[in-house]
Predict the 3D structure of the following.
Amino acid sequence: MIEKDLLVIGAGPAGSTAAKFAAKKGLDTLVIEKRQEIGTPIRCAEGVGKNVEEFVEIENDFISKDVEGAKIFSPNQELFEMAERAAGDEVGYILERKKFDQYLVEKAIEEGAEVKLRTRAKDIERDGDSIITKAIRNGKKIKIKSKIVIAADGVESRIGRLTGIIDSLSLKDIESCAQYLVTGIEDIDLDYTHFYLGKEIAPGGYAWIFPKGPESANVGLGVQPTRASKKPKEYLDEFMTQLGLEDGKIIEEMFGGVPVAEPLETAIDDNIMLVGDAARQADPITGGGIINGIKAGKIAAEAAKRSKENENYSKDTLKYYEEKRKQEIALKNKRNYQLKELFQSLGDEKYNSIVSSLKGTDFEKISVASLVSELIEENPEIAEEIKEII
Amino acid sequence: MIEVDNELCGHCGACVGVCPVNALDLIGYQIELVGDCIDCGNCIQTCPVGAIEGEK
């Protein structure tokens, strides 16, 4: 039996960040990752806000593109533009996720964390004041005894559900996504990210073009399964045709499920904390989850250190994580969840009138807050709902 | 009971997250039935490529 202070399950950004800070704070830390390679397969559009710099030292190696802003298209193809810093968590840098994830794992290792690949958590049970995780490593059964488990096991979030902390995701709270990495693009402005709205393009979600290089971009979309009449891959093939990319040179195909859910009331239990997509911390409007995952990982590491100091691993001593993640993540996500619910309930005509009313505004000068007040002014019929949410 | 076409599957794990009885797991590049399926159809509806078929 392996014995550790902390077991982190999953080596995405949330898990690696938790491991890095926990190891740095002196916890004997093991990270297990079920895949054979960190960062693959990609299931992400790779966009991240520039505020990622607050958490990660930016190296050119994992930045594919530094974008200038966002172009947002209404269903009737009207366009408005936003400057990069106003546009939120999905605009700023487009990452090379494989390299980014690998970099974060390397940082965890530098701080002393141990990493085991091809190791899948299968079951989990309490044992006194510890917790035992049963895993399969290279086809063999192993047991890992730890004081704390940080479950960063992504959208699957089996640990959270095996321990009864959460239920499965509701179909209205997941975006089902398909994406191609397309090269040889000529007629699209790849200094900007592009967002497309409309129920014909991506019902209950949006389609995107996220530039990756001078001629290449991630072209993808997410749909809400209950609103979709086709599979995301079928919507994506149609979107490619609409963009004139039906003969596009696809060099990678990616798929994913993104939680766009209300923040959890509880993301902990005795000995356990959930972080990242496993805790449904992606922004419900944009689907961006990297920064929130990193924030959560950092907070969870501090909570783990405090419980080790107190030699108490109960839910009570892990409350630090709950309180901090509520302030730093859940508050905004709760508001954005309500806005998402409102936006999803609006029809294409409403999107058209909103985009139309925003055209010509100087977006260099405005923030998301002033954007919302503009929305209210131009669209009084939804003003009450928006005011209530904010 | 569902059937997964693992050659069509995109290995994203979305189906695992919406399974209310934790009956699915993404193991390597395979979606496997690891528990008792209740035929709710969530995974079928969520799969981005249509790799899961079944009664609902």
